[in-house]
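Sequence in, structure out. Go.
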Amino acid sequence: MSGLEAKRATVGGWLRWCGLAAMAGGALLILFYAVLIVRQAIDWQAGPTLGTPIHLPLMRIISAALVLLIVGLGGVLT
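Output:
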């Protein structure tokens, strides 16, 4: 394997992982944002739910999904 082929293989592997991170982040973001919206709709009459034990883990997962999405897209675009 020549140096150029090794470099291409490394870049290809990096792009594959970045694409996977972007897809995972996007999927998590969509799924857990939908869960958050449904929970807010169900609890609408119970008053505000911001800061409750249900809301905080969902927001942490959504934040992690955004980080994965940004890292993945940044890696693919560079």
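Check: Helices lie at 3-42, 55-77. The radius of gyration is 18 Å.
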